[in-house]
Please model this.
Amino acid sequence: MDFNSEKIEKIKTDFLIIGAGAAGCFAAYEAKKLNPNIDVLILEKAHIDRSGCLAAGVNAINAYLTPGQTPESFVEYVKNDSMDLIREDLVYTIAKEINNVVKLLEEWGLPIPKDENGEYYTRGRGSIVVQGERVKPIIAQATKATKAKILNRVVVTNLIKDKNKVCGAFGFGVRDGKFYVIQAKAVLVATGGASGIYKPNNEGESRHKMWYSPFNTGAGYAIGIRAGAEMTTFEMRYVSMRIKDLMAPTGAVAQGVKAQQVNSLGERYLEERYLEKGGKSMPTAMRMWATLQENKEGRGPCYLDTTHLTKEQAEKLKAFYLHMTPGLTLYWTSRGTTPDIDPPEITSTEPYIVGGHAQAGYWINTNRMSNIENLYAAGDVAGGAPKKYLSGAGAEGMIAARDIIPNLNKINSEDINDKDIKDELKRVFNFMERQSKEILPDELELRMQKIMDEYAGGISSDYILNEQKLLKARKHIKQLKEETKYLYAQNLHELMKCHEVIDRLDVATVLIEHLLYRKETRWPIYQSRGDYPNRDDKNWLKFINSVYDKEKDKVSIIERKCETLNLKTLQK
Model:
């Protein structure tokens, strides 16, 4: 295929949003509401109607201030669950907005069941039940109604910078083969986190049967890393508790029908062995860590105990999963069984790098701007604020838009250097030219996943990390990065996969440095150091941040203070 100047499409916009998930769509909605006359462009790798984490739907919104909860109590809940290390300022600003996001979703047409008093059905302290199989098309429809421009099937490859100021992004069309040069006054990265860095729980033909979207490959992180954006807390990986094999979510069972975790002996092991005396709950990471211990000590497998359900409750639970993971409902139905006699077995996933459940991502201010001028981040790529979920991601997109739109008229639109365009064009498409040595992207990806699994705390090592293994991971990942020059793509789809594995390798590079630097165990399983097994608040109650120097291929670590804020001051 001849990629000449006719294949280059130059676009000029005011506000570029990379990623059409919840954060990106809510940012576009808020931007157009504030100023309908500005030009907003959304760049989406898939299609806005069914892209990202929400593609298959949801059956609950897990960040909501239920009756009796306040923004302050939400901050305390997130802080306790994250072992005292969070950006309180970011979590607080999210907490103030999440109910407004839910209100908008309902106005747009999301079915949210209510009781006889007109109140939402709650599921736990901060979660409400929704009928959300079509949540993404509903959000997409509301976004399209704003008249924001949308470019579907375009893969972002790099940000465009002028000194320390962002001025656009490069990308290519997976269907049309065009090379896009997008000039913008402000850029919001809202692409989602990173899956596929570690060997997945399911292998072979089922390798994409995972908790997090397999199509979220860390591109948003990678373009920021290569641009020199400051990143935070990559070492707080996320390992999710899921229903075995199907990787279905457990919340509908654990919270929806009050199912307790039990081992093969029928013991409620959390309360009996792991919950502190007098404690009422334990952090999310500890629940999965306790389950791992039960299996290691010979009391597994472990289950969510649904044997107390009536037949009617069991049928309702089966129906409930149709809104999110119908595979579980099909599992019960195809075997002629029901949850009350066939409780689901639980397992742990491979680690993910995601800022919506854990807190890996861009280091940002309360307006969601990074250390690079006019570059913002929201949703799963924004760091420091875990447990934001759908509503929190939407809130962050809106917060970013409120800072961007009033300041657009103060920002000069910088011209993009022709040499930069030519260099990136060559970098993007050279994988379609045969090399002396050829490697297909799937081959390199499998090797990366094996290295990360064995040496950087994956499933096969029970998530345990130590310095010597991490140093081996660093060495091997660097070797794989050198081999990326031999990647070969036979078509545009494979070209996309070449860039996806490059992005994942850049994320893995930063991740390893974070894991090496934090010499304690703060989040068991998420970050378990076998050589530093204890939590150490005296020395490590701080953020581990990093900046990557692309020219030197070096990651520099920066320590940032963990500040407890006066929430009364924030209220003003």
The first helix runs from residue 22 to 34. The chain has 18 helices and 20 strands.
